[in-house]
Amino acid sequence: MITLVSVYRGLLLTAVVPRGTRAYVFQRIYVVFLILGTVVGIVVIAYMLYKAYKYRASAHAGDDRDRPSVGEIPTGSGGGRKLFVSFTLSAIIVVSLIAWTYFTLLYVEDPEPVTEGEPLEVRVVGHQFYWEFVYPNGHSSANTLRVPVDRRVELTVTSADVFHNFGVPELRAKADAIPGQETDTWFIAPETGTYQAHCYELCGAGHSYMDGTVRVMERDEYRTWYANTTSSGSGNASASAVGETGVSERVA
Ligand SMILES: [Cu+2]
């Protein structure tokens, strides 16, 4: 176990495992698989076309001498060596790819060793049919999550009533919202702007309207906004009250 952890740390220190925002890491996985799939596809199809051309039916009778017949095992091309080399190469590529993806996903699960600065921790509570965001100072807001740019945001997702699923597609963050349970996810927004959040678990008649907004603000702007929030939840006191009764009803 210790060796596995040290191998993981070692890999993280190298450039092998991509680090950064979730969007960046998933984009890297996508690109690596796309390139490798394209290369394998080109090699396989080119080789197939070459063989189809080489052993094509000849117009002249008697030219078919070196064409293999159905069921004939090919000989005279290095025996088992060709098979051995291609099998070994494929095995190395596949195993490396599995290892790389595994360590990359480990990083996505737990990016602790390489992120600087304190993450912002926000509690996300799903309700029929809105999202409640609770900040460290107790401030609660409905449907709008405000975060600073370039800072890791750690979400603890849960639900006050039924199963929901909180997701922000552009930031590649997604987590189940289950009553009585907490699911963690995180994201880093590299640019200011507005991102859409949706509910990804059919949760009732209002499911399709259960959208939220992630507002990514400049650090100073966020700091000013956050300093003016109160634990009562400015402007959204009713939302947090509904949330609390919802939780206690379900738990009891
Ligand atoms: Cu929902």
UniProtKB/TrEMBL annotation:
SUPFAM superfamilies assigned: Cupredoxins
GO biological process, one term: ATP synthesis coupled electron transport
Spans traversing the lipid bilayer: 29-50, 83-103
EC number from the UniProt entry: 7.1.1.9
Keyword Transmembrane helix carried by entry: yes
InterPro entries assigned: CcO_II, CcO_II-like_C, Copper_CuA, Cupredoxin, Cyt_c_oxidase_su2, Cyt_c_oxidase_su2_TM_sf
Cited CDD domains: CuRO_HCO_II_like_6
Positions of the Cytochrome oxidase subunit II copper A binding domain: 117-228
Coiled coil, from the record: none
Biased composition (Low complexity): 228-241
A molecular function (GO) term: oxidoreductase activity
Record's GO cellular component terms: membrane
Enzyme class, spelled out: translocase
Membrane topology category: Multi-pass membrane protein
Database matches in Pfam families: COX2
UniProt region (Disordered), positions on chain: 228-252
Family of this protein: Belongs to the cytochrome c oxidase subunit 2 family.
The protein's name in its UniProt record: cytochrome-c oxidase
The encoding gene: coxB
